[in-house]
Each structure stands twice: as C-alpha cells, then as structure tokens.
Amino acid sequence: MSAAEGRPIRVALLGCGTVGGEVARLLTEQAGELAARAGAPVELAGIAVRRPDKHPELPPELLTADAEKLVTSDDVDVVVELVGGIEPVRGWLLAALEAGKSVVTANKALLAEHSADLFEAADAAGADLYFEAAVAGAIPLLRPLRESLAGDRITRVMGIVNGTTNYILSAMDSTGAGYAETLDEASRLGYAEADPTADVDGYDAASKAAILASLAFHTRVTASDVHREGIADVTAADLAAARMLGRTVKLLAICERVTDDDGVESVSARVHPVMIPRSHQLAGVGGAFNAVYVEADAAGELMFYGQGAGGAPTASAVLGDLVAVARNRVVGGRGPRESAHAALPVRPMGQTPTRYHVSLSVADRAGVLAQVAQAFAAHGVSIAAVRQSDVGDRASLVVVTHQAPDAALQSTVDEIGRLDVVHEVVSVMRVEGEDQ
Ligand SMILES: NC(=O)C1=CN([C@@H]2O[C@H](COP(=O)(O)OP(=O)(O)OC[C@H]3O[C@@H](n4cnc5c(N)ncnc54)[C@H](O)[C@@H]3O)[C@@H](O)[C@H]2O)C=CC1
Ligand SMILES: N[C@@H](CC=O)C(=O)O
Ligand code: NA
Q1: Atom 5 (ligand 2): residue with closest C-alpha?
Q2: Which of 209, 217, 325, 428 could form a disulfide with 253 if both were Cys (CB 3.0 to 4.6 A apart)?
Q3: Confidence (pTM)
Q4: What CATH class does 9-137+311-331 carry?
Q5: Ligand 2 centroid to 436 CA: how many Å?
Q6: What is the rounded CA–CA span in Å between residue 123 and residue 108?
Q7: Is there an atom of ligand 2 within 6 Å of 190 CB?
Q8: 6 assigned to a ligand binding site
Q9: Residues with catalytic roles
Q10: Roughly what angle, to the nearest 10 degrees, separates helices 89-98 and 108-125?
C-alpha cells in the first residue's frame, strides 16, 4: 500500500467564498497530488456556508448551514475555517480543537484577539493550529518565523501587509485615481474584507502586526496593543508632498524589539501611513502585493514578497497548511505550539522613536523659520532637513526631523498648527527607510 492510500484525512470546510471557493476547487482538482504529498487522501467531509441554496456548483450532499454541528462530527479530522470574524467562529474552532480536530484558518481578526485560547485548546487536545494565510496571503512568512528562524533573535519585522490599501495607494500615486472608485475595484477583485473599513482604517493590518509581533518576539501581542492609523486621511496633498521629495506613501506594519537605556527590552507594534524614498524596495511594491522585511541578529535582513490577497493566492497558503497538518496526522506528530516565553512588555506609541515629515504653508516674512524651528527645539526634536520655496505671498516650508519619541513629535505639530505665521499644516507623515 502506498502512503497516499492511508486512511483518508477528512476535512470540514467552513466558508466557501473568495478563499474557500478556491480551496474547494484546488482540493478537488489536485486530489491525487495532495494525497501523494500528505501521505493519505485529503477529502472534503462537508462544507458549511451561510446559504447552501446559493451554491449550485458544490456537491449538495456536502453542503450544510450548520457549521457548529459539522466541526465536531466524528467524520472530521481537520477544520479549515474561511468564514472570518470573531463570533461565532471562535466558538466553533474551540469546539473543534477540544474535540481533537486540527485547525487551519486565515482569520487574522480572530487570531489577533484569541490565539492564546486557541493554542491552549490545541495543546490540551494534541491538535494542530496553522494559519499561514492569515498574514500576507500566499507569501510563506509565518512558517519561516515559527520554524526557520526559531534559532535566531528577530529584532524587526516591517512591511506592507494589506493588499487593499496598497492597491489604493499605488493607484492614487501612479494614476491619480480616486479613493472610492479604487476601493470598489479592490472589493470586486476579492482583496477587501467583507467590511472594507477593516482594510482602510488599518484594523486588518493591525491584526496582522499583532500576529507577526507575537511570533517574532515570542510574546503575546493582541490587536489592541498595536497603534493603528489607516489611509482614510491620506490626501492627494500628502502624495504630492511626498512626490516633490522623491518619496511615496505606503501603509506599513512595523514591529520592533526596543531596548531602552537601562537595557530593558520591550516590543513596539504600529500600523500607519509612512513616507519612504522611491528608491526603497517597498516603494516598488504595487497593487495588492505585500512585502515584509525581517531583521534578525544572525540572519541579517530577509525580504518576503508576493501576492498578499485574493482567492487563489490565499488558497495556496491554506492548502500548504492543510498538507502540513495532514502529514502530522499521518505520522502521528504535531506542528509548532505557541511560543510566548519571552513575555515582553508592549511599549506605548508615544514612547516609540519615529521621524516626521511636516509640510507647512507659512507667511513669507523674516523670522518665520526661526519660530517654527523654536517649536521643534522646545519639544526636544532635532531637525534633519528644511526646504523652503516661495508660493505667491506665502512660503512652503518642509521640515524633516531626526528620531524623537512620537509623543514629542505630535505635540510639536500641534503647537506649530497654532502659530500665527502658519497658515496651514499641509501634510504630516512619519518617515521610514532613511538614515536617522
Ligand atoms: N480575500 C482575501 O484576499 C483574504 C481573506 N482572508 C481571510 O479569509 C477569510 C475568508 O475571507 P473571504 O473568502 O474573502 O470571505 P467571503 O466573504 O468571500 O466568504 C465568507 C464565506 O463564509 C460563509 N459564511 C458566513 N457566515 C457563515 C455562517 N454563519 N455559517 C457558515 N458559513 C458562513 C459565507 O457563506 C462565505 O462562503 C476571512 O477571515 C478573511 O479575513 C485572508 C487572507 C486573504
Ligand atoms: N483584505 C486583506 C486580505 C488579505 O489578508 C488585504 O487586503 O490584504
Ligand atoms: Na502568508
């Protein structure tokens, strides 16, 4: 008997939309190859969807609206969850794990809040919890963090982890396309979340940052620990200000291990729009693509790039996980458990060192520059570069700072906005990817 003829691994698929539909298709089309790789046939035992009558393309005998019953069925070994959201999915997955089923999920929102409970349930039952698709779609990123880099000390994870917002910012920057029409297009292409405010307001990227920081720093980091700003306030003026300086705007997730002057370590995790030089590799990442840098003591800098959203790319990551848990079942082993032993504190955003780009419209007269410079000095913020150009009876003043605690930079900008000589604060954005 060949390995692929071992007892079938029976799969409950929860959700058959953008991602689930592709998983069901590939599971069927590639059944032979998947069986050979897993060491046993991988078969669908049932598919739970909200409205079975809306799925004439699927075998009716597999369809059910009762996910709760399906996940604990004796006929199921592995639950693949592609519904999304926290409730009722959390309850289904806990029940599945408690019943000894392994779980594969793409649900970053759930993992960023409840991975500790899910890992505990998996541990108690000796089951697996895999979630490669939850961050950066097709890109193998979580397995490298959990396994390949398990012997190294990661210091930084930074990158573009939301395809929808990258699609919007790329279009605004390259063609001047409007925000709303580009968001509609991202939804039509299957990139956006069911509620796209999760994308544009940065919730999706913040969930991913929490997952990345947890794995990279062996610490439980939840979405509420992540400083979050979305792209809703990024204007054409911000993009123009960036362009004038040879920069562009990206929504970045930045997770760092920070050591203070006393040698005390903490973790910082944030998601916000950032100006980066056009020469930076992240600036060239367009459309729904994602790219993530990982810096580790021994490995140095690593970069992961590929499709971060969409049905088929995300299904690729789901199926990779499914083969992994099926293999584990066949040989009686388990994948990596939760690693949270470092338990580092999370540093508040106000204390996190950042750099700002501030673009102002000011009165064109003597002493203005000195007043603005004085406001920065008063908050202990050092200026790296200033550029002034005349525009009629006003002047355009661009200031780029050195690193300072984010709270000091915020207070400086508030004070500058109140100066009589400042007509308008045109654009304020953090800067990354340049010397500090
Ligand atoms: N679309 C993408 O590019 C990516 C999505 N994800 C994640 O994958 C998951 C699924 O996303 P999509 O496929 O885009 O969503 P979708 O909205 O296209 O599909 C959701 C599916 O869940 C089913 N469903 C909803 N409520 C249900 C209920 N109460 N009982 C049974 N079935 C129910 C729906 O019938 C539908 O088949 C989400 O967690 C999402 O965050 C992760 C990476 C990329
Ligand atoms: N809505 C998400 C989908 C993938 O995680 C995104 O746009 O990146
Ligand atoms: Na991934």
Answers
A1: 309
A2: 209
A3: 0.97
A4: alpha beta
A5: 31
A6: 20
A7: no
A8: no
A9: 208
A10: 20
What does DSSP assign to residue 144?
I
Look at residue 392 in the predicted model and tell me its pLDDT. Answer: 79
Find the helix packing angle between 31-38 and 18-29, rounded to 10°: 80
Residue 288's alpha-carbon distances to 8, 16, 192, in angstroms, are 36, 21, 10
| Backbone phi and psi for residue 165, each to the nearest 5 degrees, phi listed first | -70, -30
Question: From the CB of 193, is ligand 2 less than 6 Å away?
Answer: yes
> Quick one: DSSP state of residue 73?
-
Mutate which of 166, 193, 285, 289 for ligand 2? The one with the most ligand atoms within 8 Å of its CB, which is 193
Q: Residues 90, 251, 385, CA angle at the centre, nearest 5°?
A: 145
308 labeled binding residue: no
Token pair for 192: 């956006």
Which value does ipTM take for this structure?
A: 0.99
Centre of ligand 3 to C-alpha 6, Å, is 29
Task: Compute the average pLDDT of residues 255-278.
Answer: 96
Structural domain spans, the chain? 9-137+311-331, 142-307, 350-431
CA distance 406 to 410: 6
Contacts made by residues 382-388, CB under 8 angstroms, sequence distance 24+: 384/355, 387/245
If you take atom 6 of ligand 1, which residue's CA is the nearest one? 106
Q: What is the DSSP letter of 426?
A: E
The CATH architecture one would assign to domain 350-431 is: 2-Layer Sandwich (3.30)
pLDDT of residue 436: 63
DSSP 170: H
CB 110 within 8 A of CB 82: no
- The CATH number that domain 142-307 falls under is 3.30.360.10
Helix (H) or strand (E) holding 43: strand 42-48
Q: Is the CB of 142 under 6 A from ligand 1?
A: no
Strand, helix or coil at 83? coil
pLDDT 10s digits, 348-394? 999 999 999 999 999 999 999 999 999 999 999 999 999 998 877 88
